Amino acid sequence: MKVRAGTDTPSASTRTTTASTNVRNADTTEGLVHHSGPGSGFDHPPRSTVANWEGRYRAAVICSDLLSTVVATLTAGTVVRHGLPASLGHLPNLLSWLAALAVLAALPATHAWDVRELGQGAEEFRRLGKALLTAAVGLALVGLAAELSHLRLWVFFVVPTVALIAFPLRYVLRRLLHARRRTGECLLPVMAAGSVAWVADLIERTQREPHNGWRIEAVCTPDGLGADGTREIAGIPVVGQLNELTERVQLGGYRVVAVAADPFWTPRRLQQLAWELEDGEAELLVAPVLMEVAGPRLHVTGVLGLPLLQVRAPVFGGGRRAIKAAIDRLGSAALLVLLAPLLITIALVIWAGDRGSVLYRQQRVGRDGKPFTILKFRTMVRDAEARLAGLRNANQGAGPLFKMREDPRITRAGRVLRRYSLDELPQLVNVLTGAMSLVGPRPPLPSEVATYGPDSGRRLLVKPGLTGLWQISGRSDLPWEEAIRLDLRYVEDWSLALDAVILWKTARVVFTGQGAY
């Protein structure tokens, strides 16, 4: 049993199936028999064994990393050898396998194969990147110590080649896993314990996000009852009170126990719960409910012999931010060069439509409240602003934003540009000039910022982004409050690994046109 700290908004949860209709797939867990509702035998459910699919998925990840390493090593042996003198004999082969050994040693050493992190979140990719960086540094140190000057060719060739192969392979495996989870397979059985409101929110989130791999199968509440005195919450059976949690977990074979703060949970009782579950297979997650902070800012520390959650201040400067700024400038410049033919073609299509201006300029608010002019390809008719007043009653946008799924002001070319976010490509110029970042909160309007409270105003602590969590989580389909929450989550929990995941997912979202209108 592992004890992990969560947040009071369990966004890492996933889809559940109700106890009345749920049938455990044999590939998910073995030996667990479902019971269909209150009074149908909850007191004596059999234990389950660890899921088979977890071991198979971990084996698939390991095989993909091995394949990436072997392919990179063999490629290096073929390509790099041509740049070395023949007098070196078998040294190229030795260096190739030395590089492969360094990579394969670094992967388990950095816990890059930890099954708890595989298949979801940015942590999996962060650990893979850490392993490859560790391997590169190790090879460089060996080269210096052994005076093998030619080893640097493998450092700068083999390790990056492994990354170019391993990251996409892991992503493909993750997509396959998520596809199975959407059909109800490869899910972890979860026992949720807490207030009715917290459990209901958790269930709703798991139903909305099946890819994270949770399936809530039973609930314990303070009084053993659900909403309105029933024995269920959103179709999930309430199997007992909080003081019966250990017994229910031990009988039910649950893999995750998610516990929310409640007056019942004194420090002594939580400690006792952890002790009682530590010999089982269940992983205990406790929501601190103090604030919605996670990721690199949350740490467990000991002060005066007490275990405390340490919430570090968000980092808005330093080395990582310098790296982010360099990636923004270099990335936007490279994309502008690569996409130049497409940009020119789009400009010509817009101009040919009505001989109007190609670009649309609008005032937005950037970091620290500094205004800047955002650039977009024009997607509406030339008198779009004049027509806006007559369309106010048809507004379908969230919060202060005006949105219509069938806005009559959008041109035929504009609909295509908006669907695939091609109208936003000129913002690469804003990124290049430093007003925006490749990844960040959505760039707000001045009228929108005027309505901000202290919480929403924290979005202005960082540069707005060309894409962000809002872009990959629904875009225009998001409720206004959820869009604000995602932007604040990005500001609070930013990391380079999170940026990499967002950029990767943006390509898929843009290609499908999800939430764009």
UniProtKB/TrEMBL annotation:
Q: Which domain of life is it from?
A: Bacteria
> Locate the Bacterial sugar transferase domain: which residues?
324-511
Q: Where is the composition biased (Low complexity)?
A: 7-21
**Is this entry keyworded Repeat?**
no
Indicate yes or no for the key word Membrane: yes
Q: Which residues cross the membrane?
A: 94-115, 127-146, 152-173, 330-353
State where it is primarily located: membrane
One annotated GO molecular function is: phosphotransferase activity, for other substituted phosphate groups
Coiled-coil positions: none
Specify where the region named Disordered lies, as residue ranges.
Answer: 1-46
**Which Gene Ontology cellular component terms are annotated?**
membrane
Keyword entries, A-Z? Membrane, Transferase, Transmembrane, Transmembrane helix
Task: Report the Pfam families cross-referenced here.
Answer: Bac_transf
- Entry's localization field: Membrane
Note the topology in the membrane: Multi-pass membrane protein
Q: Which protein family is named in the record?
A: Belongs to the bacterial sugar transferase family.
Q: What is this protein called?
A: Sugar transferase
